[in-house]
């Protein structure tokens, strides 16, 4: 095969520039199919290439990896067809390969534009694919034209899933925050801050709300990068600081606290801070629950706990369960929901916590109960959560860090 042709196919696939390829002009009339087309598709967040074989009375499909696609393209143009038309985001190519080792290549301006790659039912996202979004472009998730890079589509979906959850709790955030003051949000362990930027973009740019968001992380280079991006985008209410969750300013206040995949007890310290600040909303996706793995024991379940993988999972579930109970004890409504997992972890349980407002003495709740009655019910629920927490700790013989919450 002519090396120029090989390089064309390789670049189109490896750089994700391929839009469509058509192979035609059979070398042998005995070949059962008449034409083959190849295009990229996104199946379950994985970029594949779909080869479509056109027979006289039917069409068949085959999904291929990038490597398999390159092999197929080379084989088709070497042994099966004499012509290929390659459409990419930058150029159109017509390849005439009567002699595979010495092909003629014609180059033209592009005539096709990338379409939606997904074969799944199209979902309406808060941030749409195809609409340029400044922070996603700057962070490399989108092209300047607004097209989501296939390799970052899982990150794109995660960002939108996060914003859907934020949208759900926004009424609580607005109803309990001061009417004139900007919303104060702290993101503990923000990392590369995809979701921190998304939060600012959604609340400030799309909703027009006054916000002050602080992203906290231990890595100096990450904080420097995120600060630079925020400055370039003129995200004036978004700031990044280097520091440890446990040592963060005790006098700070927050309307909302976010802690996504903070490791082990860092999640506990973030939750303790959030409760001390009386945050209206807490969104937490725990990660790496090692603490209770080394504490958990119970004679009845000893056979199960002897298996490391079962012990790890039980410790993780117990950790999340105890955190939820402790938050309920302190007046939060806690829901455990599924969150799109990050690429580096399978942990995807989110604790979505909203502060239950205190009723005034002359208030009536939605069911018509008087304020004293409603407050009594709330106190009983908190007391029950405290009892359940104590019983579980005693049953499993554990002393989790979240118990330091006062």
Q: What does it look like?
A:
The chain has 406 residues and is of the alpha/beta class. The protein has two domains: 3-108, no CATH class; 171-404, Rossmann fold. Helix content is 36%, strand content 24%. Strands 4-3-2-1-5-6-7 form a seven-stranded antiparallel beta sheet, with helices on one face. The chain has a seven-stranded mixed beta sheet with strand order 10-9-8-11-12-14-13, with helices on both faces. α4 crosses α5 (194-206). The protein is elongated and about 85 Å long.
Short description:
This protein is α/β, with parallel strands linked by helices.
Keywords:
406 residues, alpha/beta, Rossmann fold, 2 domains, seven-stranded mixed sheet, 10 helices, 24% strand
Secondary-structure map:
Blueprint lengths: L2 H12 L3 E9 L8 E9 L2 E9 L4 E6 L1 H15 E8 L3 E5 L7 E5 L25 H5 L14 H24 L6 E6 L5 H13 L4 E7 L2 H13 L5 E5 L13 E8 L2 H11 L4 E7 L14 H4 L2 H22 L2 E7 L10 E7 L15 H26 L10
Parallel strand pairs: 8-9, 8-11, 9-10, 11-12
Antiparallel strand pairs: 1-2, 1-5, 2-3, 3-4, 5-6, 6-7, 12-14, 13-14
Helix pairs in contact: 1-2, 4-5, 9-10
Q: In what range is the share of β-strand residues? A: 15-25%
CATH architecture classification of the largest domain: 3-Layer(aba) Sandwich
Structurally, how many domains make up the residues?
2
SS field, number of helical segments: 10
CATH class of the largest domain: Alpha Beta
Oligomer, anyone? single chain
Described by strand count, sense and barrel closure, the largest sheet is:
7 strands, antiparallel
